[in-house]
Design brief:
Length: 285
């Protein structure tokens, strides 16, 4: 039985994960990877997020990213590695993270004892992450921890994000939700991204989306209007709870008081980056 309050690990993850994600929406990443010859945003994303695994092929990226259309992945991977090596991409990604966090948080926050404290807590939590059946986490766990506190915090948030993300894919598979069904059902909770944004960034067609809706309706998970049924709501809740169980170790390792403190600090930094316009409005709603 967990010593943490219910969903404490999830709340902490929700405070840290968007800080990691700022880089994917940042013009700094486009500039850094563009300088390497990766001008296409999708190619840049696939390269930057998968580079820790080395020069992998489209199959490995599709498997670990899960909700992207494999046809879109195959358009860019493994060709990206002919343009830039994984090591070069990782260097560019870290430089982009540095520029992004300095711009969004400001110099005072970057140099603050609170950010150094958050970095230490997040790194301590990550000590208890496990690599088994978690390929994206395991690859990132082999990267060195940056010296600068704001980059160490970003690195730790990355480890915790990928640890939970790998577990979440296992939970989706256990629930019988394929990549598009996972996206459709998550959007139906009211917490997902905008459908137009999903289709434009994940490489799916509207007909693919509608077919996934029909599959979910046939299972009694969606109603005629595309809203979750009681069964659909229960399944989505079980997916998150299953993910929580597989992602519990880092937060148990940290302990209730430290998890609460990391969540508090993370939310404060998150409010700052949101106010600074870190995320495009069209991605939600």
């Amino acid at each position: 039985m967990s010593s943490l309050p219910p969903r404490a690990g999830r709340r902490c993850h929700n405070a840290l994960n968007p800080m990691h994600s700022t880089v994917w929406f940042s013009p700094d990443l486009g500039s850094e990877l563009g300088a390497l010859g990766l001008d296409d945003p999708r190619a840049a994303y696939f390269a930057a997020r998968s580079a820790a695994m080395g020069a992998v092929g489209a199959g490995a990226v599709s498997a670990t990213f899960y909700n992207f259309n494999p046809e879109l992945v195959a358009r860019h991977v493994p060709a990206v590695w002919e343009t830039a090596t994984p090591d070069a991409v990782l260097g560019a990604r870290l430089r982009a993270a540095d520029a992004t966090l300095r711009r969004l948080l400001g110099d005072e926050a970057v140099a603050s004892p609170e950010l150094a404290e958050a970095a230490g807590l997040a790194l301590r939590a990550a000590e208890a992450c496990t690599p088994q059946a978690k390929p994206l986490y395991a690859a990132h766990a082999e990267l060195p921890v940056p010296d600068a506190p704001h980059l160490a915090y970003w690195h730790a948030a990355t480890l915790l994000r990928e640890h939970r993300g790998d577990a979440h894919i296992a939970a989706l598979l256990h629930a019988g939700l394929d990549p598009l069904e996972a996206l459709v059902s998550h959007t139906a909770t009211g917490k997902g991204m905008a459908v137009r944004w999903i289709l434009s960034t994940r490489g799916w067609r509207r007909t693919d989306w509608e077919a996934a809706q029909e599959r979910l309706r046939s299972r009694g998970l969606l109603d005629a209007e595309g809203a979750l049924t009681d069964a659909g709501t229960a399944l989505r809740a079980e997916v998150e709870e299953h993910t929580d169980r597989m992602d519990l170790a880092p937060y148990e390792h940290l302990g209730a008081d430290a998890v609460a403190r990391l969540t508090e600090l993370g939310r404060g930094f998150l409010m700052t980056v949101f106010a600074a316009g870190a995320f495009p409005a069209e991605a939600t709603g």
